[in-house]
Design a protein that fits this description.
- It is built from eleven helices and six strands.
- With 280 residues, the protein is an alpha/beta fold.
- The model has no long low-confidence stretch (mean pLDDT 89).
Length: 280
C-alpha cells in the first residue's frame, strides 16, 4: 500500500479546508489598504504533506510558490488553532462510524526512531550508540488504527510510559466492558499487571524467555502500524525540535493512515459518487 497515494490528497484537503477559519486575501489593517496577497492554504498543505512523507527540510521544499518561512508560520498558525488535532479526531470518528473501531482488543508498544536535530523530545538512544533518538508509546485498536501516542526521549523505559498511554483511553468516549490489551515481553512485570487491574483491563503479555512468535497473537497489528508511521520519513528521522510540532506531524500521519484504511475497507460495503472502480 503506498504511504500517501495520489488519490488521497484531495479528500484530505477537502476535510482539512473545512476546519480552517476564513481569512481575507489582503490584510485589512494595512495602513494603505493593500498588502501582498495571502498565500493559498492549499499550497502550504501540499508542502507539509511532502515534508511529512519525504522528510526534506523546509528550505529544500520551498520554491517560487512558497517560502520556507511561510510554510513554518502557517504550520504554527494551524497548530495554535488545534487544526491538526481536530483533523485526526474527525478521521477517527468517521472510521468508527462507517467501519467501526475494534476496541475490545488493544495493543501498546514502544518504538525508537532517530532525532538527529535534538530538541524537547530527544535523548540518547540505547539501541543506536547513544545517538539522539525519540520514543513513542503507541496505542492502537484491533485492526491497527492509531488511537494516540505518548512521545518521550529514546532513553525512557517502555513501562513508565504505559500509564499515560492508558490515559488516552479517556478521550475515546464509551468503551466496551471487556478490553484485552496485548503487550510484548518488555511489559512482563507485576507493576504492569497492577496497572492493568487498576484500569479494569485484561492483559495478554508475552512471557520473558519464551519465543515471541508463539505468543504474538494480535500484536502484529501494532507492528504494522509502527511500520506505517516509519514510512513517513519525517517521523522516522525527525529534525523538529519542538514537541508541539512533532505532535502535529503525528496527528497528520494518523489522519492519513485512518482515512486511507477507511476508503480501502469501505470499498467493499459502501457506494459513493467518486468511488474507484477497483480497490486501491
Amino acid at each position: 500500500m503506498p504511504v500517501l497515494p495520489s488519490w488521497l490528497a484531495e479528500p484530505l484537503w477537502v476535510q482539512f479546508e473545512a476546519l480552517l477559519p476564513e481569512r481575507p486575501v489582503y490584510d485589512p489593517i494595512h495602513p494603505l489598504g493593500c498588502h501582498r496577497r495571502r498565500l493559498p492554504d492549499r499550497i502550504v498543505f501540499d508542502k507539509l504533506l511532502q515534508v511529512l512523507r519525504f522528510g526534506c527540510s523546509y528550505e529544500a521544499i520551498a520554491d517560487s510558490a512558497s517560502s520556507a518561512t511561510t510554510i513554518r508560520s502557517r504550520r504554527d498558525e494551524w497548530i495554535a488553532l488545534g487544526i491538526f488535532a481536530q483533523f485526526k479526531q474527525i478521521a477517527l470518528d468517521a472510521y468508527d462510524r462507517i467501519v467501526g473501531l475494534l476496541l475490545e482488543d488493544l495493543a501498546v508498544d514502544g518504538c525508537i526512531t532517530k532525532a538527529p536535530g535534538g530538541g524537547e523530545l530527544a535523548g540518547p538512544s540505547p539501541v543506536d550508540r547513544r545517538k539522539l533518538g525519540m520514543k513513542r508509546s503507541l496505542l492502537v485498536e484491533g485492526y491497527g488504527i492509531p488511537l494516540g501516542r505518548v512521545l518521550a526521549a529514546a532513553n525512557r523505559n517502555d513501562s513508565p510510559l504505559l500509564e499515560p498511554t492508558f490515559a488516552l483511553l479517556e478521550e475515546l468516549g464509551p468503551l466496551p466492558d471487556d478490553i484485552t490489551v496485548h503487550l510484548d515481553a518488555g511489559y512482563d512485570s507485576g507493576k504492569t499487571r497492577d496497572l492493568l487491574a487498576s484500569h479494569h483491563l485484561t492483559g495478554e503479555i508475552a512471557r520473558k524467555g519464551t519465543k515471541a512468535p508463539v505468543q504474538a497473537t494480535q500484536r502484529w497489528h501494532i507492528e504494522r502500524t509502527n511500520a506505517w508511521h516509519n514510512a513517513f520519513t519525517r517521523l522516522a528521522r525527525c529534525y523538529e525540535r519542538r514537541a508541539k510540532v512533532v505532535e502535529a506531524f503525528f496527528d497528520l500521519a494518523d489522519a492519513i493512515i485512518t482515512v486511507r484504511n477507511l476508503i480501502r475497507r469501505a470499498w467493499h460495503t459502501h457506494r459513493w459518487d467518486a468511488r474507484p472502480h477497483r480497490r486501491r
